[in-house]
Amino acid sequence: MLDTKKTSAEQELVSIAVSGITFLSAREKLLLYNSIASVDEMSKMSVNDISNVVGRKVLSRSWDGNSIPASARRSRAIMHTFDIKYVTVMSENYPDGLQNIADKPFSIFYRGNFDILKNPCVGVVGSRLLTPDGRRETIDFSKSAADKGFTVVSGLASGADSAAHVGALKSDSGRTVAVLPSGIDTIVPAGNKSIAAAIIKRGCLLSEYPPGTPPLNWRFVQRNRIIAGLSSDIVIVQAPPASGSLITADFAIDYGRELYVLKSSFEKKALSVAMMKKNKIEAAKVAGTRKYTRKVKSICEYISEDGVPVIDDFNDFLKCKLEAPGERFFDVSEFIKFFEI
């Protein structure tokens, strides 16, 4: 329940302000929320004050309490302009899929039909350099999923994400959710604004960040955990080495979600893209570029080590869901050289 010491206006402002803090967990943000009555009170707190509230030593050079009231009011003004709503971990309609993950967000800001998250959700993610066949298969898969009552969840990025949203929008239901790495007043990439507009009408845009938050690189990774958290199943499409969609796969495994790989990931053009990305990463490593230092499994490792099944299309996905674990086998031995780095 919300703290009755706050007016409804202050509840909103404090929720927005607390949501924008990057160095606290959802549990810690809730402790902070319940300990203060207004953003003006929050602005007077030091990092040591916050440490005392959350019960641990907080180390942060980014805290600027003086900026809190103006920032929260600016975000609230954007929310009112664009009819952006929000739920917190205290809300009855906070998504069930997120409630049970360790690093759940404190708040979810959204535009559109939030109720579609009550449907079974399937995450569809993959390469930004999707092949023509991969795009067609992703669109077909997502349309069929939406036709059958699923909500298609993705990240509105170029390539597989965009194709997933487009496919779901082709369904009469149009059920699709785009999770953004910024405030939902900012669409990235900008070229997908038309897709975002269509999603708002029939699906839902959402983000854990208050409006006005810019899309910094680390927020793309954080966005991936929400895609995995919301979805009971994750389908990977043509993920080349070090693909961000493989980070989503890591989260899916950690959260106990079911993971699948579309067979088009191993078509000839997709392998060419994978090899091109592999060569680029190896050249960057030689040059000492830090961008590719994060180690994620290859798509082949997920199949050979974790037993992740390979599926042909949506109908095969439904069939696979009914099969016993380990019932199907896909030999990746001839493809490993394209994906491992």
Structural account:
- It is a single chain.
- The chain is of the alpha/beta class.
- It is 45% helix and 12% strand.
- The chain contains 15 helices and nine strands.
- A nine-stranded mixed beta sheet has the order 1-2-6-5-4-3-7-8-9, with helices on both faces.
- Helix 9 links the parallel strand 5 and strand 6.
- Helix 1 (8-19) crosses helix 5 (68-82), helix 7 (132-147) crosses helix 8 and helix 10 crosses helix 11 (244-254).
- It is globular.
- The protein starts with 7 loop residues before the first helix and ends with a helix.
Topology:
Elements: H1 8-19, H2 26-35, H3 39-43, H4 47-54, H5 68-82, E1 85-88, H6 96-99, E2 107-112, E3 121-126, H7 132-147, E4 151-154, H8 160-170, E5 176-179, H9 193-202, E6 204-207, H10 217-230, E7 233-237, H11 244-254, E8 258-262, H12 268-286, H13 299-306, E9 310-311, H14 314-321, H15 336-339
Helix pairs in contact: 1-2, 1-5, 7-8, 8-9, 10-11
Brief sketch in words of this structure:
This protein has 341 residues and is an alpha/beta fold. 45% of the residues lie in helices and 12% in strands.
Key phrases:
alpha/beta, 341 residues, 9-stranded mixed beta sheet, 15 helices, 12% strand, globular
What is the ordering of alpha helices and beta strands? HHHHHEHEEHEHEHEHEHEHHEHH
How many E strands?
A: 9
Helix content: 40-55%
Strand content: 5-15%
Determine the structural class based on helices, strands and strand pairing: alpha/beta
Q: What value does the Rg take, in angstroms?
A: 21 Å
First-last Cα distance: 49 Å
Q: Helix count, per DSSP?
A: 15
Could you report the average pLDDT, rounded to the nearest whole number? 93
Most strands sheet: 9 strands, mixed
* Strand line-up of the largest beta sheet: 1-2-6-5-4-3-7-8-9
Unreliable parts: none
Shape: globular
